[in-house]
Amino acid sequence: MIRKKETTSFKNTIVGESLIRELESKGILLNEEKKSFEERLQAEAEARKKEAEKNSALEKTKDELEKERQKLVKMTKKLKDDLNKVKSDLKLTIEGKKTLEQEKVSLMTKTQHLVSNLESLNMEKSKTEDQMSQIIREREKFLLENQNLSSTTCQLKNRLMEIESKTTCLATEKEKVENL
Questions:
Q1: How many helices (H) and strands (E) does the chain have?
Q2: What is the extent of the structural domain holding 89?
Q3: Are 174 and 122 in contact (CB under 8 A)?
C-alpha cells in the first residue's frame, strides 16, 4: 500500500511537474502574446495619435484655406465690380466720342456750306461790282442821254449793300463756327 501510494504520489508528482511545465509554457506563451498585444496596442495608440495630429493639422489647413477662399471671393467680387465700372465708363466715353464726332461732322458740313455761300456771294459781289463799274462809266458817258440808268445804278448799289451785309454776316457766322 505504501508502494501504491508512493507510485501514485510519484505519478502525481510527474503529472504535477508536467502540468507545471505545461502551465509555465502556456504562461510564457501568454506573456509573449500579452507583450505582442501591448506592442500592437502601443503601435495602434501611436498611429491614432499621429492620425489625430494629422487630422488637427488638416482641420487647421482647411480653416486657413477657407479664409483664403473668402478673401479670393471678396477680391473676385471687387474685381468684377471694378470691371463693370470700367465697362460703364468706357461705354459713356464711346457714346461721348460718337456725339462729338457727329457734332464735328455737322459743324464741318455747316462750315462747308457757309464757305460755299460766302464764295458764291463773293462771286456775285464781284460781278455786281464789275457791273456797277461798267454802269458808272456808261452813266458818265450817257447821263444826258438816258436817265433810266440812274435808277438801275441805285438798285445795283442797294443790292451790293445787301450782298456786303450778307457777306459780313456770313463771315461773322463762319468765324463763330470755326471758333467752336
A1: 2, 0
A2: 2-179
A3: no
- Reading the block at residue 93, the C-alpha cell is 466715353
pLDDT along the chain (180 residues), means of 10: 66 79 84 88 91 91 93 93 93 92 92 90 88 80 62 80 87 80
Dihedral (CA of 83, 89, 93, 96) sign: positive
Question: Could you tell me if 136 and 149 are in contact, meaning their C-beta atoms sit under 8 angstroms apart?
Answer: no
The single-letter DSSP state of residue 147 is S
Whole-structure pTM value: 0.39
CA terminus-to-terminus distance, the chain? 151
Count of the separate structural domains present in the chain: 1
What is the C-alpha separation between 122 and 138, in angstroms, rounded? 24
Nearest to 139 by CA among 160, 156, 115: 156
CA-nearest of 47, 40, 170 to 116 is 170
Q: At 168, list the grid cell.
A: 459780313
What confidence score (pLDDT) does residue 3 get?
A: 61
Burial 20-43, CB ≥16 within 10 A → b, else e: eeeeeeeeeeeeeeeeeeeeeeee
